[in-house]
TrEMBL record:
It is found in: Cell inner membrane; Periplasm. It comes from Alkalihalophilus lindianensis. Keywords: Cell inner membrane, Cell membrane, Membrane, Signal, Transport. Gene3D superfamilies: Periplasmic binding protein-like II (3.40.190.10). This is Aliphatic sulfonate ABC transporter substrate-binding protein.
Length: 336
């Protein structure tokens, strides 16, 4: 297992270092010459991985050349979008909302999955319920990320706060999901708010305890764990390319909904290409039950998450998400 951890850590580190490109060449109103697509090597990014590996995006994009980059966290994804090295892709709603509220050029085109956040604690950590987090430590993929807010708002309701705001719960952020495994194995962290399949991996392979199931996490059943985003500029300049990509997204979502076995095999193959090792089939199958692949966006859940983030002082101003979501392109494609 240590070999797997080392390989996955290296792969994801390389992903962070190589998350760059030349930017797309655009033709106002028509198709772009190329498109840079981003996604994460997580299970709830199934539509992205399947769409890439099965050629659904490339089939719809036609002569538009697609370049694909995987990211270890939302912060790096947003940085690539901001610098023009990324045109469109899949990211958690947290980083997207945070970027939008700071004036960033970003728009949500639709959703890709709901659920997929699991709160787990290392065996021997002394954590059996959320009430036990006082004086303990936890990690998340990013600071103020989707999973971070989901956990901290539940802790706040119990009178517990992270050390970020003077509380007794230590938070370590920007921990790539695969690296959480090494931290649990070495006893460097007590708990994690983890995306799938990494949460289930910690449970099945390292004996971690599930503290809060995915559907009991804050907004667990309605909050999109993954949204499809682009910049408003790219959308305005390349509506045909965006629509083509969204048709590939639609096909990918429908395929994953109808072909579970092949979807999981495709995802495991993709992870193997990054790590040279495969996740146990039981981990993937059980993690799959902790999420829903869907295009339903639930804007009200996005607003509720943003309100929670503000309440937790990740934001300085009350969040107004007006203009953040525009599902009109995807809605039209779904109705075709």
């Amino acid at each position: 297992m240590k070999k797997w951890l080392k390989a996955s850590g290296i792969a994801l580190t390389i992903a962070a270092l190589t998350a760059c490109g030349t930017g797309s060449s655009t033709t106002s109103g028509g198709p772009a010459e190329e498109i840079n697509v981003g996604y994460f090597p997580n299970l709830d990014h199934a539509a992205a991985i399947v769409g890439k590996e099965k050629g659904f995006f490339d089939d719809e994009l036609g002569d538009v050349e697609a370049e694909y980059t995987h990211f270890p966290n939302g912060n790096d994804f947003i940085e690539a979008l901001e610098t023009g090295n990324l045109d469109i892709g899949y990211v958690g709603p947290g980083p997207a909302i945070n970027y939008f509220l700071t004036g960033g050029d970003i728009v949500v085109l639709g959703a890709a999955a709901n659920g997929a956040t699991l709160i787990v604690a290392r065996d021997g950590s002394g954590i059996e319920t959320l009430e036990d987090f006082g004086g303990k430590s936890f990690c998340t993929p990013g600071n103020g990320c989707t999973h971070n807010v989901q956990l901290e708002i539940m802790l706040q309701e119990l009178g517990l706060e992270s050390n970020r705001v003077g509380g007794t719960v230590e938070h370590q952020s920007r921990i790539a999901p695969a690296n959480m495994v090494a931290m649990f194995e070495q006893g460097q962290i007590d708990a994690a708010a983890a995306p799938e399949p990494w949460g289930t991996y910690l449970v099945e392979e390292l004996g971690a305890n599930v503290i809060t199931e995915w559907d009991q996490v804050f907004l667990g059943e309605t909050l999109p764990s993954v949204v499809v985003v682009t910049s408003k500029r790219f959308l305005e300049e390349n509506p045909e390319t965006v629509d083509a990509f969204l048709r590939g997204h639609k096909t990918a979502v429908e395929y994953t909904q109808e072909n579970t076995e092949d979807t999981l095999e495709t995802i495991n193959d993709a992870l193997f290409n990054l790590t040279q090792n495969r996740l146990p089939e039981t981990v993937l199958s059980q993690a799959w039950e902790r999420m829903v692949v869907t295009t339903e966006t639930h804007p009200e859940a996005l607003q509720a998450w943003a309100d929670a983030s503000y309440e937790l002082k990740f934001m300085d101003k009350e969040p107004d998400l007006d203009g953040f979501v525009d599902t009109s392109h995807l809605d039209a494609i779904l109705a075709e």
